[in-house]
Amino acid sequence: MEKEVLLYEGKAKKLFKKPDSNELRVEYLDQATALNGQKKDAIQGKGALNNQITSYLFQLLAKEGIHSHFIKKLSKHEQLIEMVEMIPLEVVVRNVAAGSFSKRLGIEEGTPLPRPIVEFYYKDDALDDPFINDDHMAYLGVATVEEREGMRDLALQVNETLQKIFAQIYIRLIDFKIEIGKTVQGGLLLADEISPDTCRLWDAVTNDHLDKDIYRRDLGDILPVYQEVYNRLEKEFSSCI
Ligand code: TMP
Fold first, then answer.
1. What is the CATH number of the domain that holds 175?
2. Which residues, at least 6 apart from 189, have a Cβ–Cβ distance to it below 8 Å?
3. The domain containing residue 199 runs over which residues?
4. 161-210: per-residue pLDDT in tens?
5. Which one of 38, 57, 86, 152 is at 20 to 30 Å from 179 when CA atoms are compared?
6. Is the CB of 119 under 6 A from ligand 1?
7. Which of 30, 65, 82 delimits the end of a domain?
8. Ligand 1 within 6 A of 25 CB?
9. Same domain for 95 and 159?
């Protein structure tokens, strides 16, 4: 059997590629980082929870017609995905003011937004992933106008569907970040992960954080909170996946 090669090692995942295959094996790591890696801790069990939550969400999105690079879950902390050419952008959708949006514009955290706001960030660790506008994107050549509009539409569709999924488990989707890749045919495909690391999730009754802000803001242990999100998904959706 031909050996796998480590293609990429990020803050939360390792990607392995089999020779002559368009499929990758992803290993979710037991590691939490914040502030562009300045804060970093090993958290046993976090990788498995994020892998399982992402796997659920990608499968539920697929059932609603939104396909992603997800092929199948291989184990608690691994999944098989389709290889795509990643577009070096983070696409953020916001339904409620929070985080950097609240800070930048001086809007109180928790203020509902009249319609979803889409933002693009240029993925570059050395630059701290700066916020960019359409002209910056064109200048940098990271996406064509058509791709940019396609990404915006996809992000809004993901938002609508995820909001419905989370509402069923009494969670408010405050905001989230996705990453998008290009297939060999040139189409856009949802990629990376969707988990409490990449979403702000507030309990619908108490507004308690069920996401990585617990870690970013030193509010306590993230593991029980991530477990709670997983348990709610499992209880509501295990029979339909
Ligand atoms: P922000 O308010 O810090 O800009 O974050 C908006 C959303 O994007 C929030 O749900 C967290 C997510 N996010 C990531 O997943 N990765 C990142 O590097 C950043 C900055 C935000």
1. 3.30.470.20
2. 67, 68, 69, 82, 84, 180, 181, 182, 183
3. 85-221
4. 999 999 999 999 999 999 999 999 999 999 999 999 999 999 999 999 99
5. 38
6. no
7. 82
8. no
9. yes
Question: Could you tell me if the CB of 96 is within 6 A of ligand 1?
Answer: no
- Kindly state if the Cβ of 58 falls inside 6 Å of ligand 1: no
Tens digits of per-residue pLDDT, 207-225? 999 999 999 999 999 999 9
Per DSSP, helices labelled H in 8-133 are 46-63, 99-105
Cβ of 178 closer than 6 Å to ligand 1, yes or no, is no
Which ligand 1 atom is the nearest neighbour of the CA of 175?
10
Do 94 and 196 have their domain in common?
yes
238: tokens are 């295990």
Q: Which of 54, 101, 175, 222 to mutate to test the pocket of ligand 1 (most atoms within 8 A of CB)?
A: 175
**Is the model's pTM score more than 0.90?**
yes
> Residue 177: CB within 6 Å of ligand 1?
yes
Q: Cβ atoms within 10 A of the Cβ of 216, count?
A: 16
d(CA 190, CA 158): 9
Atom of ligand 1 nearest to the CA of 198: 15
Statement to judge: residues 48 and 127 lie in one domain: no
Residue 155 in contact with ligand 1 by CB distance below 6 A: no
Alpha helices in 90-222 (DSSP H): 99-105, 134-140, 145-168, 213-216
Pocket test for ligand 1, best of 35, 89, 92, 180 (most atoms within 8 A of CB): 92
* Those residues with Cβ within 8 angstroms of residue 124's Cβ, 6 or more apart along the chain or in another chain: 88, 130
